[in-house]
Specification:
17% strand, three-stranded antiparallel beta sheet, alpha+beta, 14 helices
Length: 404
């Protein structure tokens, strides 16, 4: 198996794609034809969304929770890959890093690509890697779709489209790629203007402006000399912060300039626009969501992501025949870990009494490690078999017997 040291020597591009590319670029027959009129080319939008504090906080909240998902390979078709994946998705990342970066790319670009890490045998998957190309093109290579990835360092990677996992959002006009985030442009302009307004307001609050009428000055050259004298004696050098004005200055008045700043209600509307776009709220950003609030976030945001990721990894890992025989990659989360203390207590008591969950499964809800003998199912004695008069056995050992 390739080590991190070997991968570093070969370079990340070759470590992921290997020598994978069309044998002869003359085989490329232009772009792969889609049903829409759009050319199958996706290029990162230069809107600099990630430079916004609110956008970054929203995406970070989603990615942090997504990084706790669990990836598992089920079935017997590829036991070797299942063994490899126990150590991580690839030689460079942990699972939490893989899920965090993949989710961040998807939320930022609305398109995320998972490339298989290929070994010496190009048909054998060694792991998964989330890539961030600056440009992606779908080519027609001898009648088959291939992805051509362009990276910022000038390198390019090639791989068959059916070997890549694709996660996207807002897919409407293009048959392959999701739309960009230009719909958020107006909101970003408001956020930018609000930040500039606050900055200018702070600057203006530290200065004083006034106006006064000068008497006994008729000639323009006299006005010029007086202005230069006033600036020299009051605004330069060590004036001590005190303005000394002769009696020629009359009707002196301070100019009170108030910068326009969006009020709290309007700012809340701007924030809500961002939250609605990304499917989060302030409780999620500030780690206050528990119980039903967190469950709603999981159902609306994390679970669809987990389903899409599970399907994408399954499709790129197994053939149709292998999938039909029960081989798949699952992405799950123990959502009860994020319930309130009262909800955890209720679930623990009810599920344990009826033999639905064993002690180790309940300990997992509370973030505790498994214990020896914790896989035994316990059932309260007053629960009876509806087909029999006698009571059920109080202790049932093993999952198979518990199901019986």
């Amino acid at each position: 198996m390739r080590t991190v040291r070997d991968s570093g020597i070969r370079g990340l591009l070759e470590g992921i794609f290997g020598p994978r590319k069309p044998k002869d670029l003359t085989q490329v027959d232009g772009f792969f034809k889609t049903l829409t009129a759009y050319t199958p080319v996706f290029q990162n939008w230069g809107g600099k969304l990630y430079e916004s504090e609110l956008i970054r906080a929203s995406i970070d909240a989603i990615a942090r929770h997504a990084s706790k998902l669990v990836i598992d390979v089920q079935g017997t078709a590829n036991q070797k890959l299942r063994t490899r994946l126990k150590g991580g998705p690839n030689a460079w990342m942990t699972y939490s890093q893989f899920l965090y970066r993949l989710t961040t790319i998807r939320e930022m670009q609305n398109n995320a690509f998972i490339a298989p890490v290929l070994g010496e045998d190009p048909d054998e998957i060694q792991g998964y890697f989330p890539i961030l190309p600056s440009r992606t093109t779908l080519l027609d290579v001898d009648g088959q779709p291939w992805y051509e990835y362009w990276f910022l360092n000038g390198q390019r990677g090639y791989i068959e489209a059916d070997r890549v996992g694709v996660l996207n959002k807002f897919q409407y006009e293009d048959d392959i790629f999701g739309d960009d985030n230009r719909a958020l442009g107006a909101t970003m302009d408001l956020i930018n203007m609000q930040q500039q307004g606050i900055k200018e307001g702070i600057k203006n609050s530290a200065t004083f402006r006034f106006m006064a009428r000068l008497s006994n000055f008729v000639k323009p050259e006299d006005l010029k000399k007086e202005r230069e004298r006033f600036n020299r004696e009051n605004l330069q050098g060590e004036s001590g912060g005190i303005l000394l004005m002769p009696n020629q200055y009359v009707d002196a008045k301070q100019i009170d300039q108030k910068p326009f700043i969006v009020d709290a209600d309007q700012m809340k509307l701007i924030q809500e626009s961002v939250f609605n776009y990304f499917g989060v709220n302030m409780d999620i950003l500030q780690n206050k969501a528990v119980g039903d609030s967190w469950a709603a976030f999981y159902d609306g945001k994390l679970e669809p992501l987990a389903v899409s990721l599970s399907e994408a990894l399954t499709k790129m890992t197994f053939s149709r025949r292998e999938i039909s025989m029960g081989n798949l990659v699952t992405v799950t989360s123990n959502r009860l870990q994020y319930a309130s203390t009262k909800e955890k207590l209720d679930v623990s008591a009810q599920m344990a009494d009826r033999g639905i969950m064993n002690r180790n499964e309940i300990r997992e809800i509370w973030g505790l490690p498994p214990i020896e003998g914790g896989d035994t199912f316990l059932v309260r004695g007053e629960y009876k078999d509806p087909d029999k008069d006698e009571e059920t056995v109080t202790v049932i050992g093993g999952k198979e017997n518990a199901e019986d």
